[in-house]
From TrEMBL:
<feature type="binding site">
    <location>
        <position position="53"/>
    </location>
    <ligand>
        <name>Mg(2+)</name>
    </ligand>
</feature>
<feature type="site" description="Interaction with target DNA">
    <location>
        <position position="91"/>
    </location>
</feature>
<comment type="function">
    <text>DNA repair enzyme involved in the repair of deaminated bases. Selectively cleaves double-stranded DNA at the second phosphodiester bond 3' to a deoxyinosine leaving behind the intact lesion on the nicked DNA.</text>
</comment>
<keyword id="KW-0963">Cytoplasm</keyword>
<feature type="region of interest" description="Disordered">
    <location>
        <begin position="158"/>
        <end position="194"/>
    </location>
</feature>
<dbReference type="Pfam" id="PF04493">
    <property type="entry name" value="Endonuclease_5"/>
</dbReference>
<keyword id="KW-0234">DNA repair</keyword>
<feature type="compositionally biased region" description="Gly residues">
    <location>
        <begin position="182"/>
        <end position="191"/>
    </location>
</feature>
<comment type="similarity">
    <text>Belongs to the endonuclease V family.</text>
</comment>
<feature type="binding site">
    <location>
        <position position="121"/>
    </location>
    <ligand>
        <name>Mg(2+)</name>
    </ligand>
</feature>
<keyword id="KW-0255">Endonuclease</keyword>
<keyword id="KW-0540">Nuclease</keyword>
<keyword id="KW-0227">DNA damage</keyword>
<protein>
    <recommendedName>
        <fullName>Endonuclease V</fullName>
        <ecNumber>3.1.21.7</ecNumber>
    </recommendedName>
</protein>
<keyword id="KW-0378">Hydrolase</keyword>
<keyword id="KW-0460">Magnesium</keyword>
<dbReference type="GO" id="GO:0004519">
    <property type="term" value="F:endonuclease activity"/>
</dbReference>
DNA sequence: GCGACAG
DNA sequence: ATCTTGTCGC
């Protein structure tokens, strides 16, 4: 991090961790760079929302990433890019970012214009150390990011109402994991469960998705964007487009 | 020791 | 994430 508080993605990539202990140390070091004090772009803003996703071929040790830019208002695809690389880290719950980010950064670099918002597959704040994939990608790029996951991980939630748009809090029952203002310090006392994200029903009668803040976006807007991006299916169109593209990219390698 | 475990 | 058949519906 330089004097202005910016993280250098190149420096981070040069010092990419090789084991779990190093990776956790990186998360603890970068966590303080996350900006949670900005509300982020308004839903329906004039700009692009970019979806990123990754596909793997562990047999050949190959990973393919895709970045697809949609018009934030019409959801039309306006730009896309892919990148291929070697798997840089094994899958470990809580350390997903180290497996996905290097190739995702390459894909993002292939876009013609700078994204106004990036939607990640996975979590941001909803993470054991409050620094999931979306937080990590946000800090390394400086871009507003959110995380939309398909599973609640270890967090607890009460199912939201049956209608599209219904939400319920995603809660961390284990206090003392992080020093969050209002969580009552580090003593493992019985404090109120911390809301780390939200379960959001994007389609009536369909299992919810799990939204959390990444970087420079608040939770209300993260949910509003997610709902706007999912007018027809459970998952945001950004995620669907990026998922489709990275699979095609992997298959053509 | 056993279960749970984003993608 | 990935492995996989058939099936229901627009």
């Amino acid at each position: 991090m330089d004097a202005s508080g910016t993280i250098s993605p190149d420096d981070e990539l040069r010092h990419w961790p090789t084991d779990e202990a190093q990776a956790r140390a990186v998360q603890d070091r970068l966590r303080s760079s996350v900006r949670l004090d900005q509300s982020g772009p308004e839903p329906g803003f004039a700009g692009t929302v970019v979806g990123v996703d990754v596909a793997y071929d562990d047999e050949r040790d190959v990973v393919a990433a895709a970045a697809v830019a949609l018009d934030a208002r019409t959801l039309a695809v306006v730009d896309e890019a892919t990148a291929v690389g070697r798997v840089s880290f094994p899958y470990v719950p809580g350390l997903l970012a180290f497996r996905e980010i290097p190739t995702v950064l390459d894909a993002l670099a292939g876009l013609t214009r700078t994204p106004d918002l990036v939607v990640c597959d996975g979590y941001g704040l909803a993470h054991p150390r409050r620094f999931g994939l979306a937080s990590h990608l946000g800090v390394l790029t400086g871009l507003p990011t959110i995380g939309v996951a398909k599973n609640p991980f270890t967090f607890r939630y009460t199912p939201p109402g049956p209608d599209r748009g219904a939400v319920s809090p995603l809660l961390d029952d284990r206090p003392g994991t992080t020093d969050t203002p209002g969580s009552g310090g580090t003593a493992g006392g019985a404090g109120h469960p911390e809301e780390v994200g939200r379960a959001l029903r994007t389609q009536t009668g369909v299992k919810p998705v799990f939204v959390s803040v990444g970087h420079r976006v608040d939770l209300d807007r993260a949910c509003a964007h997610t709902l706007h991006l999912a007018p027809k299916y459970r998952l945001p169109e950004t995620t669907r487009a990026a998922d489709s593209l990275c699979r095609r990219a992997l298959a053509s390698v």
